[in-house]
Amino acid sequence: MRCFAQAIDLVDDPELIRAYEENHRAVWPRVAAALRTAGIARMRIFRHGTRLFMYCEGPDGFDPARDYQEYARDPECRKWDELMRRFQRPVPGAPDGAWWTPMDLVFDLEACPCSGTDSRSS
């Protein structure tokens, strides 16, 4: 399983933020089905203020830049994306043309070697 993370900002408007969250409490069934068909096994979106952080998991070899396009081929999913874009803005420093900006993995507890002892100093 491969994980990836992305960030985007919401427009700084409390009503738009409320509407964005309301839409995500009732995601269109076809949108969820298309994400699964594209290979996404798990997706979670977190918010702090106007910043969104999305965590996803897909099969080994999954490439969001390539495989997410399968999702976007569905006309209803494109309509959902267009609707969501009115709430969103790329993060500062996003690459040209990027919407959701990929984030680099900095730490993974599962990959951390562990001696099984507590090495904290007293």
Tell me the major beta sheet: 5 strands, antiparallel
What distance separates the N and C termini?
39 Å
Unreliable runs: none
Percentage of β-strand residues: 15-25%
Q: Helix/strand/pairing class, anyone?
A: alpha+beta
String of helices and strands: EHHEEHHEE
Q: Level of helix content?
A: 25-40%
CATH architecture classification: 2-Layer Sandwich
The strand count comes to 5
For the record, the count of structural domains works out to 1
Q: Indicate the CATH topology.
A: Alpha-Beta Plaits
CATH homologous superfamily identity: Dimeric alpha+beta barrel
The radius of gyration over CA amounts to 17 Å
Helix tally equals 4
Characterize the overall form. globular
Average predicted local confidence, pLDDT: 91
User: What is the top-level CATH class?
Assistant: Alpha Beta
What topology emerges from the helices and strands here?
Elements: E1 2-10, H1 14-25, H2 29-37, E2 42-48, E3 51-58, H3 64-72, H4 75-85, E4 88-89, E5 101-103
Structure in words:
The structure is a single chain. This protein has 122 residues and is an alpha+beta fold. It has a single domain, classed as 2-Layer Sandwich (Alpha-Beta Plaits). It has 4 helices and 5 strands, in the order βααββααββ. It has helices at 14-25, 29-37, 64-72, 75-85; strands at 2-10, 42-48, 51-58, 88-89, 101-103. Strands 1, 2, 3, 4 and 5 form a 5-stranded antiparallel beta sheet that branches. Helix 2 packs across helix 3. The chain is globular and about 50 Å long. The model has no long low-confidence stretch (mean pLDDT 91).
